[in-house]
Amino acid sequence: MTDVLERTVREEWGRLVALLLAQFRRVDLVEDAMGDAVEAAARRWPQDGVPDNPSAWLLTAARRRLLDRLRAEETARRGAPDLAREAGHREEGARAMADPGDLVEDDLLRLVLMCAHPALAPEAASALTLRLVMGVPTPDVARLFLVPEATMAARITRAKKKIVGAAIPFGVPDASVLPERLDTVAQVAYLAFTAGYAPGTGPDLLRAETSGEAIRLVRVVLGVRPDEPVLVALLALTLLQHSRRDARVHDGRLVLLPDQDRGRWHHDEIAEALGLLEHPGLTGPITVLAASYTLQARIAAEHARAARPEDTRWDHVVALYDTLLAVAPSPAARLARAVAVAEAQGPASGIAALEGVEIPASHRVAAVRAELLARDGDAVAARAAYDQAIAACRNDVELAHLRARRAALD
Amino acid sequence: MKYLVLLIGDGEVKPWDEHTPDEQAATMERFRAFDEACAARPGVEVLAGEALADAGTATTLRTRGGRLEMTDGPYAEVVEGMGGFYLVEAPDLDVLVELLGELPAYDMQVSPVVDVTY
Fold first, then answer.
1. Domain ranges of chain B
2. 10 Å Cβ neighbour count for A49?
3. How many A/B residue pairs have CB atoms within 8 Å?
4. Deepest of A10, A298, A377, B107, by most Cβ within 10 A of its Cβ?
5. Residue A82: is its pLDDT beyond 70?
6. CATH code given to domain B2-112
7. Which of B1, B4, B41, B94 to mutate to test the interface with A (most CBs of A within 10 A)?
8. CB B94 to CB A168 under 8 A?
């Protein structure tokens, strides 16, 4: 693929899909038509030269494919050939609608709200959003969600069928429901981010590239809904987590926060996130989800601001977790709070704070308990907890880390 | 688009026979509000809607080995609490879901109706 084509697909895919949907309302056909258009461009541009307006070229090519498909469908349905005239009319209407302007931004929002609709399963919505809004190819989406390509292709097809079959609208809902629908969009984007950030299994601890795609998605949605609190908070949170990507793994080994080389954090991203957290919209009335993202981002910001691990204001971190637990209680937040308590008040207090925290099918509680017991000098109990964590852990990098910690006890 | 809305379970609504007369009137008012909201919305029409007799009166029909067999009771657990249904014409799922918010807080299932032409 030529550089121009790659860049055009990357930057314009979502807008072009939205334009085609605004015109044809056929999500089941639009993706294939776009795929065909890109394929045609990859063939033609190297021979004919890159067109003056690459995205208009792709739009025209995709639109032609769509009209061909619709014509074929109609012929099949009616068994009659008297369609060329009608299709011609429709094409004229199509040209009139292709005028890009403010409407295009609205169409992009409609596309995002359709893909991230609560009537779709979250994983399907997340995959569909990456595919249709961001133009991430299906094999890459499959890689991101750790499923075979055929499985992902079927999942995306099923989601598109549900959209058409249940008439999930390509539209912006009433203002009274828009905030919760944007919450769903944020959740869908965060699901895409965490799939890349901390996969549960496999040798690949960090897939920074795909996390980057999710951040790009948040930016795109924020572009059409500027100042939306849940999106501002989510962008801050994901930027802060993403900023540590180069420091989290060294020689294929997991590096925990206190041991990370803070010089390798992306400080430009941290600065952007800290700026976002100053946004006035975050102090007004916001949804529970927006509040939860904001607090998580403020916690990450405490770490980001500390030049050295010992500079971390752990009492602030504990207080932020207390607020987070009041707003949106979760076992993961209780676990993280226990870690902060241990840092602020010593391992024994941390172990006490872990009391009753359970995360089914996860090794994390046992891993933290083991670490705190070891620090507290109880090697026997620590060893047992490490064994428990090792038995439950399915991530290769983290497994190696746990084994090394357990061995260090001997 | 036509949708079949099944009122599947009582959800946050008390069983009907535990309602006080006032509560019954309030619940009936929700049904009326739903009808009115549908009538007021362009492109939306309630094509049919009935309350159903309790599950003990349901009969299940299954064809096994080419024979239509009849058994007492509802088909599956999921419809044991089914209390009623609507057949609604609505432009899309969002419009329908918004209007269904007028109804008592039952658990519901929404299924699009497929056009079958012979």
1. 2-112
2. 8
3. 29
4. A298
5. no
6. 3.30.70.1060
7. B94
8. yes
